[in-house]
Every structure is written in C-alpha cells, then in structure tokens.
Amino acid sequence: MKGNPGFLGLPKHFWANVRSIGQKVGYTVRNTGRIRVPTLAEIRRAFGSLGLTVAHIADDDDNLTELGARLLSYFDYRAQVLYESVQPRLMETDRAKELFEGLHANLNPKCPIPMNKQKGEKRAPAYFTGIINMLVEANAEGLPCDYAPRELTTVTLKDMPLRTLARWVDGAFPGAVNPIAVWEVKEYYYTTTFGSRVADGVYESLLDGMELEELHQEEGIEIRHLLMVDGYKTWWLDGRSYLCRIIDMLHMGYADEVLFGYEVVEQLPGIVKEWVEIAKGRVR
What is the pTM of this model? Predict the structure, then answer.
C-alpha cells in the first residue's frame, strides 16, 4: 500500500493535530473496537480538555477551515482503508502456512528461511518472513540481497561513513552498506496480547523513517523504506489503534510503502523489480 496522494506531503502541524486528536478522542471505540472517525464535536471537547483552540479547524458556527476539512476527510479515509484493504489481507497462522508451503514448493528457494521464536508444537518456519524472502529472491534477477543484516545500515561518501542508522533492519537490498532499499517485518502469529514489544516495533519503524527522511533532505540520498506486517489477531483484534498509527506513519512519509499480510504477494514482486532497475542503473 502506498499513501493516498491527497494526504502526502502535508506539513508537520497537520500530523500534530492528528496525534493530539488521537490522544484524547482515541483511535477505536471503547467496547466495540471499531475504528473511530472523530467528529467536530469530539475534536472540540478534546482540544478544550487540552486547553487548545479549534479556531484553525472550525469557526464558532462549525464552518470548517481548509485544515479542518482535510482532517475530517483523513480520519474517514483512514478508517475506510483499514476496513476495506487492510483487514481482509491480514493472515492468521493457517493461511500464512498454506501460502508459505505453496510458494516454497513452486519456487524451490535458496534464500534463508528463518525459524520463528516459538517452542514446542509452535516451532516452525517464520512463515511471513519466509514468504517475503522467497518473493524477493524470485524477482531480484540473481542480484545479491542481505536477508538478515547483522550490522547497522550505513551510507558512505568517498569511502567514509556519511550516515549510520541507529538500529539493525530486517532486510537490505543489495546489502546494508549503501542499500537501495531496507525493510522491516512485524510478524506476530502467536502473540496472545498486543504487548509492549509489538508496540515498540511500530516506533522502531518510525525512528528508521525519520533517519531516512533526514538523509534524503540533507544529503539528497534516497533509500526505499518498506514495512511489512502480519498476524490478524495481533494487529486487527488487539492492535487496531496501532494500525491507525501505521497509516499515519505512511502518510507522514516515514515509509514508502506498507504491505499488510497477503499484500506482499500482490505488490512485493513489482517493488523488487523497481529495485533491480535502480541497481542496474548504478552499474552503468
């Protein structure tokens, strides 16, 4: 999923409003768990409790400003895309296992297939990561790829470090030094609750995105940043509010694309082919 062009490139203060509203109004409706689409009345109450004005959103007669209209439109869009595009693509273990085994039989991969971190009967291949690795390999036209970098991503200039990111990523093409693309995988099939480890994963992706944005703005160097998440129960039943934050992060420009569950099959091959063309251009 790419961001909606109507909500890309918006100023930082737009997202400050989105976050402040989310903080006080909430991302989901208590008891029902439905994605919340804040109303103007709810925004008025929220900002009033924070001691903030709503004059930049609407006048006293509820006439919306341009910013206010865009905010309400965004909240409506965010809920719509989560229900129509994200929910049906998130997979649970059985569906991911079936997809993994089918791809494995058809592609006969040579790429690494890591195991999950479970024990006993739940010990198995990391299905989503394996699916991603196989799809990358199948579309990389034989070019190298680091499927699990054990080093910090580094961008160099004249053989000297220009930027070094703060944390390891889950994959880099073609490698962790001067990559064309990096990606992160948040695969949670067996998690029983939406715990701090899962929430931290969202904020780690945000940190990576902010560092890559700074690199692009200050040095003119672009590294594609891809986030891929799966696990229906974890993300949809327990972590819907964090799905809202991921959609926000996408439109803030901190990820070039976010792929949800089965969407990797639909979109990742084409994305990798774009990386290959960039790599070929580097060689010329």
Answer: 0.95
